[in-house]
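[job 4471] stage=fold_predict status=RUNNING
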Amino acid sequence: MGQTPAIRLERLGKRFRVNRRDPGLAAALRALFRRDWVEVDAVSELSLAVAAGERVGFLGPNGAGKTTTLKMLAGLLHPSSGRAEVLGHTPARREPAFLRRVALVMGQRRQLSWDLPAVDTFELNRVVFEVERPVYARRLAEMRELLALGDLIHKPVRTLSLGERMKCELVAALLHGPEVLFLDEPTIGMDVAMQAAIREFVRDYGRRHGATVLLTSHYMADVAALCERVVVIDGGRLRFDGSIDALVRRIRPLRRVAVLLEGELDAAARGELGELGEIVEAPGSWGEAADAGGEGARPRGAERLALDVAPARVPEAVARLLALPGARDLAVRDAPLEEVMRELFARHATEGAGEDQQGEDQEGGARRSAS
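[job 4471] inference complete, writing structure tokens
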């Protein structure tokens, strides 16, 4: 008999009733006496299971329903339909035993008191969650070291940068030792070094405590570094559930073969390479930032040439690229996860538009038949 999942959703749905009105003064006056309401499905029949100790990327475009789902799992919102279960608890009941075992960290919301030092909030959480003082002191010391917080916890929160504040938010959320972490954009607004530090911290916490992590982020580097499995939703519905490798193979099965090339690519060579696959980058395509030696710049005169080719033709493409004069720094990899996600959402948008058009065509045909 299999292990009980740490997180289980069964046909979970959340519907909001929102006011809608046209722009303008006249519409605003009418809304004082009569409002038009519409119902919007933020999440619709979402089903999935997450095993204990698993780290899962929960992805989707803006408005897909990710944050709404996390709020339902944390007990902040009541589902309109279906069922949610976390560690055997029903989140909406917000039982103390449940709240002591989970944590929700939202990059665009804060639990720290704005005018007080973060350590005051830490102490408050220690009392609220009934953490013994020796345990609290040990955990705080560990997290201060892992996140390189130093004396930041003694400064008023309003004086901290966004990245520093987010590190303190993580500490406040984890001092009670939660078994399940819901992380909503935990690295938002951070520089590259700080993002890497947060990823390492979350990975280390999960490994030490066997914690289950459900992560939403628009930074695909967060997902690739922390998660082997991704769940993609769009329009509140499940679109994909599987490994990152499986997602890449499904959406962009081609392999990207690239070299740095000295000089220009002549027309004949371009034509030969075009027969092997699609040229996605070629000499002459670098922008001014690279030419000026900015971030991501290449040595002057060396520019990137990249092909997307079928897996079976990778050896042929490698041999052809390395045969070009001045070719060096060969790389063979999957398409970037950002491109895969962008194409996935574009496909769903096209499919949705096609379904809408089909419905309109059927409705129009019915009207013509009736007339």
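[job 4471] summary: Residues 137 and 227 are 30 Å apart (CA to CA).
[job 4471] exit 0
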